[in-house]
Design a protein that fits this description.
mainly alpha; 3-stranded parallel sheet; Tyrosyl-Transfer RNA Synthetase; binds tryptophan; 52% helix; Rossmann fold; EC 6.1.1.2; ATP-binding; 5 strands
Length: 344
């Protein structure tokens, strides 16, 4: 294919994906979604609800359908602007699946075998894992590279997948002699500072799959539920430390102060300057007030949006069309690069 040239990749395009599963928690909000919002000021952003990824493990269709709308409503309520940026569910743009096939032929079995998320999710009985779960990272690479996006905000746990995406991009560019065709992805690792832990056990991540609803704050919780969960959150008998070093062996204290700092837009040190030395009784009231003040408008807006599902769907459809308009020329170029007889 030497001699042919293709348009340069966009220089500042953001892509990220979020799973359409269950109820979103304060952890999803502080650790991920909230960090997506300010990127909209600087970059062209695509935010994708990854239903194709979700079905690598069985999903009950009605639950998947409801979760997709709920995540869309949450993202919009949190400040993602679907008119100036692009918000859609993955299956609306079949270009992801097509490019993922090409990447199935680029990625090596060895690379995929080393993915820790596959090992964790497949568990002991790998023979019974879906083939989709194994090639999940190829689809993730395709999500990003179908738009030749180069900035990807993710949590620490997705870093290995982005390294694999870069290996795929490199091998593709190298094998088909199209240097720089797929851009190098720059992972924007966010959310580490605000890893939100369970309210019942400060050593476990806050998770929508924890059997105890008291362990998490859901974005759909009412003000009363939020206040009650914080009141009952696990603590220890000591007053709050005045410096972060005092969090040693006090995971619950660390977690609650970290949440407070994130909700009030302060560093942990500044939050401690304010609340250090307080007993948990007083501090919890303050934390509950901050959580309610921050989350109530989001919950209200989410519920307002969810009352009109047709409107949410229309927003996603529009997003899907805008997304496809961006990926279509990329896929045409890729077919050309691969040597397929194609019509553009
Ligand atoms: N795998 C990601 C997660 O589980 C979600 C995801 C899918 C994603 N495709 C992506 C994230 C592309 C960033 C870019 O959180």
């Amino acid at each position: 294919m030497t001699g042919k040239s293709y348009p340069a990749a966009p220089t500042a395009r953001v892509f990220s994906g979020i799973q359409p599963t269950g109820h979103l928690t304060l952890g999803n909000y502080l650790g991920a979604i909230r960090n997506w919002v300010p990127l909209q000021r600087e970059f062209e952003c695509l935010y994708c609800i990854v239903d194709l990824h979700a079905i690598t493990m069985f999903q009950e269709p009605a639950a998947l359908h409801a979760a997709t709308r709920q995540v869309a409503a949450a993202l919009i309520a949190c400040g993602i602007d679907p008119t100036r940026h692009i918000l859609f569910n993955q299956s609306l743009n079949p270009d992801h699946a097509e490019l993922a096939w090409y990447f199935n032929c680029v990625a090596r079995m060895g690379w995929l075998s080393r993915m820790t998320q596959f090992k964790e999710k497949a568990g002991k009985d790998r023979e019974r894992a879906s083939a989709g779960l194994f090639v999940y990272p190829n689809l993730m690479a395709a999500d990003i590279l179908a738009y030749r996006a180069n900035r990807v905000p993710v949590g620490e746990d997705q870093k290995q997948h982005l390294e694999l995406a870069n290996s795929i991009a490199d091998k593709f560019n190298h094998d088909w002699e199209v240097p720089g065709y797929f851009p190098e992805i720059d992972p924007l690792i966010l959310g580490e500072a605000t890893r939100v832990m369970s309210l019942r056990d400060g050593t476990k991540k806050m998770s929508k799959s924890d059997p105890s609803d008291m362990s998490r704050i859901n974005l759909t919780d009412t003000a009363d539920q939020i206040a009650q969960k914080i009141r009952k959150a696990k603590t220890d008998p000591e007053p709050l430390p005045t410096e972060a070093a005092g969090f040693e062996n006090r995971p619950e204290a660390r977690n609650l102060v970290t949440i407070y700092a994130a909700l009030t837009d302060k560093s942990v040190a500044d939050a401690l300057a304010e609340v250090g030395g307080q007993g948990f009784g007083d501090f919890k009231k303050q934390l509950a007030d901050a959580a309610v003040a921050h989350l109530s408008p989001i919950t209200e807006e989410m519920n307002r949006l969810l009352a009109d599902p047709a409107e949410i769907d229309a927003t996603l459809f529009k997003g899907g069309e805008k997304a496809r308009a961006l990926s279509r020329p990329v896929l045409a170029q890729v077919r050309d690069i691969l040597g397929f007889v194609h019509s553009g």
